[in-house]
Structure formats: structure tokens, C-alpha cells
Specification:
Layout lengths: L20 H5 L45 E4 L2 E6 L4 E14 L1 E4 L2 E4 L5 E5 L7 E4 L11 H6 L6 E7 L29 E4 L5 E5 L6 E3 L14 H12 L7 E6 L5 H15 L8 E5 L12 E7 L17 E5 L9 H17 L9 E4 L7 H13 L3 E6 L3 H5 L6 H16 L5 E6 L12 H13 L1 E2 L14 E2 L10 E4 L7 H8 L5 E6 L11 H8 L2 E9 H9 L1 H4 L14 H7 L7 E13 L4 E5 L3 H5 L6 E7 L6 H4 L8 H9 L6 E2 L12 E2 L9
Parallel strand pairs: 12-16, 12-17, 13-16, 17-18, 22-26
Antiparallel strand pairs: 1-2, 2-8, 3-6, 3-7, 3-8, 3-11, 4-5, 4-7, 9-10, 13-14, 14-15, 19-20, 21-25, 23-24, 23-26, 24-25, 27-28
Helix pairs in contact: 3-4, 5-6, 6-8, 10-12
The structure holds adenosine-5'-triphosphate.
Keywords: ATP-binding, Kinase, Nucleotide-binding, Transferase
Protein name: Polynucleotide 5'-hydroxyl-kinase GRC3
Family: Belongs to the Clp1 family. NOL9/GRC3 subfamily.
């Protein structure tokens, strides 16, 4: 039974502690033990288990590799000649061009042409399969180099180019991910040997100098992407329906039920159906703050895409449009449902609904995987905000059960009952589609959701800003640098101290370009005002959201009594803005606040009144008009991965790390006499007071 009383459309939402749905929404890796059978077009996806006892089929390319016959090497490029029914499953990063013929990738057909697709295929997710589906389209002109060397005729020729983004070296910083992308440091390479007629080994190809690698022999611990047949049917319906109102599709389902994968299939099918027109993108509203493929960590986002998303979008690496984020600060809406809904509404209305042009773009919405108990009430509220035309419910349990009309699943009843109720309450004609989801037993996924969150944080802070992202048909290529942040000095940014009186502040504020205040999300259990030790405990070594707020609004807050309380004698402290005040001022539909990105606070220097801070996106902060906007920082619960704080010393970097530790220049960590393995003797000073603890 739900922990919540039935909700009225105008009722405030509240969350009941320790209710049964807590587990569902939380990031715990305690996934359901039931294993689900998805519907598939041909063979079942090898990765999806029917029962605990069933052995998973292996993953491999349906391709008999023969060097210089159907594989051609040209420097950084490998050409593969495929015949009808053959397929390539590759891991790593590559730039794909279809040289001749056509391919089906994750349920969408791609034709030969000059388009270059950046594919990111980490082993954390099911690998895309490049399937040759043409048998007679090879009539195009081939370049002489290919004609000369490929003596045989192939239905499809694909060109794969290296794409070393440095993501492959993330293992240098965090060993957890050392095999996530194909790399020449940690991977073992399949050897491909070309035999002469006399049996001598002539050439061998071990993929060491490539950023990708085909899976040529059966592998049991990887997964391959195979959209179920009803997803393909759904995507056909999605692109074929010519309605006057653009579609707004909400995708609902449990964690790991395939929501993002289905969303990408629908997006790619749509873009394919309109032939990738640059000014006709598709809109993606990703409102899952925990497991987002499209947003900044612990944020919700609206982005537009006009180029296909093949493989993972773990790092927001696919481009071809724009992206706006709102930082929520937690991985689950349950932490502050009202604030979460405020951010969703703000994002949706400002970026989509209020813009006459954008509103004509079809919208796909990736929902949080919290669909039990209170999560259902939240869905009801989101339906009210977004007014979807369609809701796809990815059911991840017994597939046969939900195909029957009288499925007596209580949870379904609760969810679908409320969705139906919302149709009447909001006078909305919503098409509800039940579809099969996938379900992976957590042991068959390479990384837990917590580990993937760590990956997202690291890749966010180590991405080299690309200020020239184009929206052309070629997606932009991100670049990363996984040296520990601690190896470079943080920026020193002044802050406005509490010593300013409301009168003096008005005269000085317009000139001030530093940080004008800090807030802690969900701070209601912090004793206020805070002293310097408490401020350091909360902010040292923490990830913060950076906001630009309108100067007038800032002054309103500053002058309010709650901010100005200065019973603590430490007047050198930064201005502290209670979160209730922050929410009140920057609540629904407030366009007086803008989220600029995330930063990591290294430390606070109270003498010089400065924050030492790492800012990956300095440009967006520099572009602020400081006479009209002031900067404030918000602390949620996105945490700095331990590997950032205690960088691993390896090879030539060893000396550098040792020196750092020797001189006790490592902040945040209390060290015992010796360094130990496994970080046991490290004590990280990272303890924000948790709500309800
Ligand atoms: N049709 C499919 N065939 C094989 N693997 C799939 C399929 N759909 C999804 N997967 C894999 O299942 C896992 C979960 O998929 P996905 O991330 O799309 O689910 P989700 O519901 O969006 O998850 P979350 O709630 O955590 O965001 C991923 O590893 C993905 O690659």
C-alpha cells in the first residue's frame, strides 16, 4: 500500500519517511531479483536473463574476420566489408561512416553517405550492434583505395576511425573504470592473424593502436543492445503519426528498464524520418536527477538534438543542439519533491512551452525510475506540468502478464489508475502504451548506478571545455584530461563577507565580482547561524552549483533578517542564505536565477576572504554581467569521488603525488602515519548533516 494518501490536484506533496517506496527510489543497488524476458524481434538479447539459473548467451560479432579480405587497415582507420546478416559489435570509441550499403544500428537504419557518427560504446552499457541489412545497394562509386584492396564485393562497407578522447584513460585517475573504454593500458587485445598460403603468420592486428575493438570471440560478461520488437513498432508509430500537435512522450519505468535506450531509439527514428534537418531537432527533457545520460550530475535538463545518438551519452558527448540544466543537488526527487517539481516546471516552461518555435518540436521525457508509492504521486504532478500526448510505460516484469487485459498487478493498478485519473483531472487526451522493458539482474551489469554516478562526476570535471560546439551534422568531439584536479591550483575567488551592513552593501555590490553568498540545500536541520568550522565542514571539498542571480533580488535576500543575523562574531564568513529564503525568492517561474555549472570547492580562506575553487566551465561565469547579476553557490549532496581527493600515484606521476602528500598539501584528508591500501586510513572530511539523521 502506498505511504501516501490519495493526492488531490491542488494538494501539496509530502513524503513520508521510511515508506515502502523509499527503497525503490533510492540509489541502492538492491535491484529486484525477478528477471524479465523482453520481447525481441529475432533472437533474445543475449544480455537479458530469463531466470537466475539461465546462462547468458555470449556476445560476439557475426563476422568472420579476414585481414585484407574483409578488413582493411589504413592508418587510423579500419574498413570492414560486411555481407547481408553479418554484424559488428564493438567496444570503445569510434567515428563511423557508412561507405556503401546500409546498416541497422539499435533498430534504426542508416544509409551510406558522408555523415560521421561519433559512437561511444563503454562496457557499462549494452554495446551497439552494426548489422548489415542491405543485399543489393552496393552500386555507389567506391574510392580507388577501397576498390583496389577489397577484391571481394560487399553489401556494406563501414569505415571506423579512431577517436581517442582520453576517456579511455579515466582508469589512471579511477581504477574502477580502467576497462570501461577500449585502451592500450589495461585491455587485452584479441589477435587477428593473417595466414599466408604457406601457413606463416603474415600480419597481425591486435587493435592496440585503435580506440575501438570488435568483439570477435564470444564474450560472456558483456551485453549487446537489441531493441524488443514492440519498441520498433512504437518507434514506427511515433514517426508515422502526423498530428497537428507535436508529440510529448513521457517514458516511465523502473530503474534500468531501458527508458533512456527507448528514448534514444525514438529520437533517432524521428531524426531519420525527417532526414536530419539542422533546424528541426527533437527535444529531450531528462528529469531523472540520478541516472541522467543527458544532464549535468544530479540535475534535470532540456536539450535538443538533430543528429543521432548512437551508443552512450554518458558525458553529454553527443552534440548537435543545445542543453540547459537545473541543478537539483540530489540523486532522487524524494529528497525535496516540491523543489524538484519547481525545477522541472521552470525548465519545461521556460525552455519549451513558452517558446512558440520550440513548442513545435516533438518532446521525449525521461522520467525518474521511481514508480511506486510516492513516485506515482510525483508522476501525476509531472503529467499536470508537461501535459503529455503519450505515456509509454516500460513494464519490466512478466511480459505475458501485462499483455493480458486483466493483469492483476497492484502496482500497475496504482500507476495506471492515477494516470487515467490525470486524464480526467486535466482534461487531457493521453495515449497510454504499455510496452516491454528490459531487466538486468544487477550482476549482469558491469557497473552499479553509484559507480556510474561517480563516472559522470569525474567526466564532468575532467572534460576540456569546448567553446566551439557546432550544431552541424557532424557531432562535436569532446576531449578529457584525467590528471587529478589537485595537480593544478584552484582558482581563488573572493567572497562577500557578513561584515557588510545592508547600507554599505548597496554601495559596494555593483562592483563586486566574487561570490556573494552560499546556501545549503535542505538545510532545515542545520543550526543557524553557522560558525567557520561548520561552514568549512560543509563546503570544503564539496561540489556546488554556481548560480547567477539578479542583483536586485540578491539585495532583497541580503536585507532580509534571516540572512543578516550576525550573532556569530565571525564577521569574515561568507554570507549564508537559508535555503527556505533561496527557494522563496527563486521559486516557480523565476527567471532571475540562472544555473551556470558545477564547481568543486577546495578550501575557504577566511583571512583573505576567498574560496579556492575548481571551475570546469569558467567561460560561462566570465560571461556574467556582474553589474546585473551576482554569483551564489548552492551545496547539494553531489560528492567528490575519493579518487579525486587521493589521487593514485602511478609510474611517472608517482613522485608528484608523493611530494604532494609529504608536504601535507592534500586538503580534505586526515592521514595517519602511513598510507595504506584501499584507502582505509584515509579520513575524508566530507560530512554534511543529512536530513532525517
Ligand atoms: N533493448 C535492450 N537490449 C539490450 N540492452 C539494453 C536494452 N535496453 C537497455 N539496455 C541496457 O540496459 C541497461 C539499462 O538501460 P537504460 O539505461 O536505457 O535504462 P533506464 O531505465 O534509463 O535506466 P535508469 O533508470 O538507471 O536511467 C543499460 O546497460 C542498457 O544498455
Amino acid at each position: 500500500m502506498s505511504a501516501f494518501s490519495a493526492i488531490q490536484s491542488n494538494q501539496e506533496i509530502f513524503y513520508v519517511q521510511n515508506s515502502s517506496d523509499e527503497e525503490q527510489g533510492s540509489d541502492s543497488d538492491n535491484d529486484n531479483e525477478n528477471l524479465i524476458i523482453p520481447e525481441v524481434s529475432s533472437a533474445p538479447p543475449p544480455s537479458i536473463l530469463r531466470s537466475n539459473s539461465q546462462i547468458k548467451p555470449p556476445v560476439f560479432s557475426k563476422f568472420q574476420a579476414r585481414l585484407n579480405e574483409n578488413i582493411l587497415l589504413k592508418g587510423n582507420i579500419i574498413y570492414f566489408g560486411l555481407n547481408y546478416g553479418e554484424s559488428l559489435v564493438l567496444k570503445g570509441q569510434y567515428i563511423l561512416t557508412i561507405y556503401s550499403g546500409k546498416l541497422m544500428i539499435n533498430g534504426v537504419t542508416y544509409h551510406r553517405g558522408t555523415a560521421k557518427y561519433n559512437v561511444y560504446a563503454p562496457i557499462s552499457h549494452s554495446l551497439p550492434e552494426l548489422l548489415c541489412i542491405s543485399s543489393n545497394e552496393n552500386s555507389g562509386t567506391l574510392s580507388p583505395e577501397v576498390v583496389d584492396i577489397f577484391t571481394e564485393k560487399f553489401d556494406t562497407i563501414v569505415k571506423l576511425e579512431n577517436n581517442f578522447t582520453k576517456l579511455e584513460s579515466i582508469g589512471n585517475l579511477c581504477p574502477l573504470f580502467k576497462n570501461m573504454f577500449h585502451n592500450n593500458l589495461h585491455n587485452q587485445f584479441p589477435k587477428l592473424v593473417d595466414h599466408d598460403d604457406d601457413g606463416d603468420d603474415d600480419l597481425d592486428l591486435n587493435f592496440q593502436k585503435y580506440s575501438f575493438c570488435p568483439i570477435l570471440c564470444p564474450v560472456y560478461d558483456l551485453n549487446v543492445m537489441r531493441p524488443p520488437a514492440n519498441w520498433l513498432q512504437l518507434s514506427k508509430t511515433f514517426v508515422s503519426q502526423n498530428t497537428s500537435i507535436p508529440k510529448r512522450v513521457l517514458i516511465i519505468g523502473y530503474k534500468n528498464s531501458g527508458k533512456s535506450s527507448l528514448l534514444k531509439l525514438l529520437a533517432n527514428s524521428y531524426l531519420d524520418s525527417i532526414n536530419y534537418v539542422a533546424d528541426e531537432p527533437i527535444g529531450i527533457l531528462d528529469i531523472d536527477p540520478g541516472q541522467s545520460e543527458f544532464s549535468v550530475p544530479n540535475s534535470v535538463s532540456y536539450s535538443t538534438y538533430n543528429f543521432p545518438l548512437i551508443g552512450s551519452n554518458l558525458t553529454g558527448s553527443h552534440a548537435g543542439g543545445s542543453c540547459w540544466n537545473e541543478y537539483f543537488g540530489f540523486n532522487n526527487p524524494m529528497e525535496n519533491p516540491d523543489w524538484y517539481l519547481t525545477l522541472v516546471a521552470k525548465l519545461f516552461q521556460e525552455r519549451y512551452e513558452d517558446n512558440d518555435l520550440v513548442r513545435q518540436v516533438p518532446l521525449l521525457v525521461n522520467m525518474p525510475g521511481w514508480i511506486k508509492g510516492y513516485g506515482v504521486q510525483l508522476i501525476y504532478k509531472i503529467i499536470k506540468i508537461i501535459k503529455p500526448t503519450d505515456i509509454v510505460y516500460l513494464k519490466s516484469h512478466n511480459e505475458m502478464e501485462y499483455q493480458s487485459e486483466d493483469a492483476d498487478d497492484e502496482e500497475d493498478d496504482e500507476l495506471l489508475g492515477l494516470i487515467n485519473e490525470s486524464k480526467q483531472d486535466f482534461f487531457q487526451n493521453i495515449n497510454i502504451i504499455k510496452s516491454s522493458g528490459v531487466f538486468f539482474h544487477h550482476t549482469s551489469l558491469k557497473y552499479s548506478s553509484q559507480e556510474l554516478s561517480i563516472f559522470r562526476v569525474l567526466s564532468y570535471f575532467h572534460k576540456i571545455p569546448n567553446n566551439n560546439i557546432s550544431s552541424s551534422s557532424t557531432s562535436s568531439r569532446p576531449n578529457f584530461n584525467f590528471n587529478p584536479l589537485l595537480w593544478t591550483s584552484p582558482l581563488k575567488i573572493s567572497y562577500l563577507a557578513k561584515s557588510q551592513t545592508p547600507d554599505t552593501i548597496i554601495s559596494t555590490i555593483s562592483e563586486f565580482k566574487g561570490i556573494c553568498g552560499v546556501t545549503v540545500f535542505n538545510d532545515d536541520e542545520l543550526s543557524q547561524p553557522l560558525n567557520s568550522t561548520e561552514i568549512s565542514t560543509i563546503f570544503d571539498c564539496s561540489i556546488v552549483g554556481i548560480y547567477a542571480v539578479e542583483t536586485n533580488q540578491y539585495l532583497n535576500i541580503y536585507q532580509s533578517s534571516s540572512v543578516n543575523k550576525s550573532s556569530v562574531p565571525e564577521t569574515q564568513l561568507p554570507v549564508f542564505i537559508p535555503f527556505s529564503k533561496f527557494q522563496e525568492e527563486f521559486g516557480p517561474r523565476s527567471n532571475t536565477i540562472q544555473f551556470l555549472g558545477l564547481g568543486i570547492i577546495h578550501s575557504i580562506n577566511y583571512k583573505t576572504k576567498t574560496f579556492n575553487i575548481y571551475l570546469p566551465d569558467l567561460e560561462s561565469i566570465k560571461s556574467v554581467n556582474f553589474s546585473e547579476y551576482k554569483i551564489i553557490l548552492g551545496r547539494g549532496r553531489t560528492s567528490v569521488p575519493i579518487w579525486e581527493l587521493y589521487p593514485k600515484s602511478e609510474d611517472n606521476n608517482k613522485k608528484r603525488s608523493e611530494k604532494l602528500f609529504k608536504h601535507e598539501k592534500v586538503p580534505f584528508i586526515s592521514l595517519n602515519d602511513k598510507f595504506g591500501k584501499g584507502g582505509k586510513i584515509l579520513k575524508v572530511r566530507r560530512n554534511i548533516i543529512r536530513r532525517r539523521q
